[in-house]
Amino acid sequence: MSQSIINSTIKPFKATAFHNGAFVDVTEQDLLGKWSVVFFYPADFTFVCPTELGDMADHYEKLQGMGVEVYSVSTDTHFTHKAWHASSDTINKITYPMIGDPTGTITRNFGVMIEEDGLALRGTFVINPEGEVKVAEIHDLGIGRSASELVRKIQAAQYVASHDGEVCPAKWQPGEETLAPSIDLVGKI
Fold it and tell me: Which tens digits make up the pLDDT trace of 134-154?
């Protein structure tokens, strides 16, 4: 990425997802008005990917309770997502939308396409209700992500969004002290 995606507005897209036993259309408009996670992974029927998607499924109820919708995305089709969902106990527990991006439009929009392979890097993006990217994390293919750390980052992003003038320090957890940046804090932390 030559330019930071942070605070940029998500680009238009239209895709089909496998969600709760049906094929549904999803556009960038579906992400507006609530917090969203767009969670890219390389491919269905692989090794690290199901561990990540299963971990996200285990945290999905908590995320929904925080007003967050999750969308997983790979360059596979929605048909492949359905087949994987039907054949894997880990993937079968997923109830969030699994978007197919065979054209790579969404994957390129977020800057995570591996062009020579036609696959996505492991990219995680947290988007606020206005459609702005607030968290962007991109991993190499062999490095799995943690949904519990993602939950903490979303909690911090939501806190900062609703508490003007406050920021969350490293390892901040809900209920802990935040900081109010000022000249008086310079060199004191």
Answer: 999 999 999 999 999 999 999
Residue 95 per-residue DSSP state: -
> What count of Cα atoms within 13 Å lies in the side-chain half-sphere of residue 10?
29
Task: Pick the catalytic residue from 5, 31, 49, 73.
Answer: 49
Q: What is the DSSP letter of 45?
A: S
Looking at residue 11, its pLDDT comes to: 97
Phi, psi dihedrals of residue 98, rounded to the nearest 5°: -110, 100
Q: What 3-state class would DSSP assign to 132?
A: strand
Predicted TM-score of the model (pTM): 0.94
Residue 182 and residue 157: Cα distance in Å, rounded? 20
Rounded CA-CA distance 113/40 in Å is 10
Residue 29 and residue 162: Cα distance in Å, rounded?
22
Among the listed residues 12, 90, 2, 95, the one whose alpha carbon sits nearest the alpha carbon of residue 51: 90
CA angle 93, 94, 96 (to 5 degrees): 155
Residue 168 annotated among the catalytic residues of the structure: no
